[in-house]
Amino acid sequence: MIIPWETLAPETLENLIESFVLREGTDYGEHERSLEDKVADVKQQLKSGDVVLVWSELHETVNLMPRTQFHG
């Protein structure tokens, strides 16, 4: 189920995004990016609709994923 990110308290959204960014361990190439930059990128992707916030009833977890990968 997609959770509208706009309904979350700003602090909660920030914590979810930070947790996601830290757990992903993505390689950003030759230049490492700051946590703040990575969080800002994810927020922008949420706003544009490219990324969605998803609740899994099966696992009782919240995750971020590309909209194209969500099959709810």
From TrEMBL:
Pfam families: UPF0270. InterPro entries: UPF0270, YehU-like_sf. SUPFAM superfamilies: YehU-like (SSF118001). Transmembrane segments: none annotated. Belongs to the UPF0270 family. This is UPF0270 protein SIK69_05180. It comes from Scandinavium lactucae.
